[in-house]
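tool=predict chain=A
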Amino acid sequence: MVNKIIAQGAEAILTRKGNQIVKKRLKKGYRLPIIDNRIRKQRTKKEARLLEKSSKLIPIPKIIKLDENSQEITLEFLKGKKLSENLDKLKNNLQICKTLGQQIAKLHDNGIIHGDLTTSNMIYVPTKKTKNKINVKLSDNKTSISSYNRDVLGDNKTSGKLYFIDFGLGYESTKPEDKAVDLHLIKQALEAKHFKHYEKFFKKVIQGYRTSSNSKPVLNRLEKVEGRGRYKQAY
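tool=predict ok
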């Protein structure tokens, strides 16, 4: 089976082979080979550790294999929709944004900073429908077989699962500043990519984030982070 390149960034290249995704960190020619190899190996190991820890909290692609020597992480391929390309047209987008906030809160409550919170790094897997057969009693005591659709993937409110991907810039921290910057990133991403609805989208994100027991100091810090951003724009 031929590997197909599906994305390439400054740090890594993603290839697909069947139902698997391989993320390989790219060599940097400006670094000494021995140093470059060590840095890429450390970052690959750190990302795998964050993925493993996060998978116990929120939906994350399953790690199939970690190869530190080759700086590769093999993950399951998610048959879903990239949120950046579909959020605006999804009927349940407000609920998805609330779920997004709840999942960020779970990561932050456990000391995990994603570091690159954009809707491009989120995959929405819609609920699949399945046909279930049921028996229906008729008036003449005969039984008829009928079919109906049933949701089989999670609760009916979200009608699917929201997966976070790409923890390559992630790290561990309990500082309100780091958490606030994470929230600021998703706000900027919503404003840039979903500008028609970003205010109500981000309002729902914050509503979901308030499920965190430590949300108050983070949201207070967020105001200061945003203030610094406005100051930079003015000058």
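Helices lie at 33-54, 83-86, 93-109, 176-193, 198-209, 215-234. The chain is about 40% helix and 25% strand.
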